[in-house]
Amino acid sequence: KQEVTQIPAALSVPEGENLVLNCSFTDSAIYNLQWFRQDPGKGLTSLLLIQSSQREQTSGRLNASLDKSSGRSTLYIAASQPGDSATYLCAVLNYGQNFVFGPGTRLSVLP
Amino acid sequence: GAGVSQSPSNKVTEKGKDVELRCDPISGHTALYWYRQSLGQGLEFLIYFQGNSAPDKSGLPSDRFSAERTGGSVSTLTIQRTQQEDSAVYLCASSLAYRVGAFFGQGTRLTVV
C-alpha cells in the first residue's frame, strides 16, 4: 500500500528565504508526482507535475525534483514571499490510477 | 467550464438526513475523483471513475456512501443517513490523462449537526 509522508509538518520563515519541502513515498510504481497548494478553506491548486520519467520541473520561483528510485521529491521555493503562505501537498499517482496524498507542510512566510 | 465546479459550496444538514454533492468536471476529462478532507486531516480517497469502466469504490468508508457519474460527465456523491463524523470538505478532481495531472474543485464543506 502506497504511503506518502511530508517533512516538515510546519515551517515558518522570514520573507526572502529560500526553502525546501520534502515528500517521500514507499512504492516507486507511480505514473507521476504532483505538488499542490491549498489556502485555508479553499480547494487545491496544482503547482507542478513531474512525470515518472522526469527528474525535475520548474515554474517561476518553484522547482520540484523527483528521485523515483529512492522515493523522494523536493519542492524548492526561492525568495519566499508572504503570499506563499499556505499548505503544500504532494500526491503520487499510482499504477492503480489513484492519487495518494501526503499530510502536507504548513508554510508561513513572515513579512 | 474553465475549471472543476462543485455545488453546493457549503451544506449544513441534520443528522440522519441524506445529502447529494455535485461535481462538474472539466469538459472532456475522462477521469473523475472524489476525496474527503476532515478538519486538520489529509486527503482521503473515496472513489474514482475512468471513462466507461467500473468505478474504483475501494475508498468509500461505508455503504451509506455512493456515487454515480452520468454520461461520463457530471458526478453526484450521495451520503445517506448522515452522521456527525461525515462532516468534512468533499473535494472533486478531474483529469484528462495521467500525463496532465489532476485539477481540483473548490470543494463542498459538509456540516452535520
Key descriptive features of the protein:
heterodimer, A: 111 residues, mainly beta, six-stranded mixed sheet, five-stranded antiparallel sheet, globular, B: 113 residues, four-stranded antiparallel sheet
Describe this structure in words.
The complex is a heterodimer of chains A (111) and B (113). Chain A is mainly beta and 111 residues long. Chain A has no helices and eleven strands. Helix content of chain B is 0%, strand content 47%. Chain B has strands at 5-7, 10-13, 19-24, 31-37, 43-50, 65-69, 75-79, 88-95, 103-104, 108-112. In chain B, the strands form two sheets. In chain B, strands 2, 4, 5, 8, 9 and 10 form a six-stranded mixed β-sheet that branches. Chain B has a four-stranded antiparallel β-sheet with strand order 1-3-7-6, with no helix packed on it. In chain B, strand 4 (31-37) and strand 5 (43-50) form a beta hairpin. The termini of chain B are far apart.
The total of beta strands of chain B comes to 10
The parts of chain A where pLDDT drops under 50 for at least 5 residues are none
What is the quaternary state of this protein? Answer: heterodimer
Radius of gyration of chain B: 13 Å
Please indicate the percent range of residues of chain B in DSSP E strands (runs of 2 or more): over 45%
Find the structural class of chain B using helix and strand composition.
Answer: mainly beta
Largest sheet of chain B: 6 strands, mixed
Rg of chain A, Å, rounded: 13 Å
Most extensive contact: A-B, 24 and 27 residues
The chain-level mean pLDDT of chain B equals 92
The unreliable regions of chain B are none
Q: So how many helices of chain B?
A: 0
Q: Termini distance of chain B?
A: 33 Å
By DSSP (H or I, 4+ residues per run), the number of helices of chain A equals 0
Distance between the termini of chain A: 41 Å
* N-to-C SSE string of chain B, H for helix and E for strand: EEEEEEEEEE
Q: What order do the helices and strands of chain A follow?
A: EEEEEEEEEEE
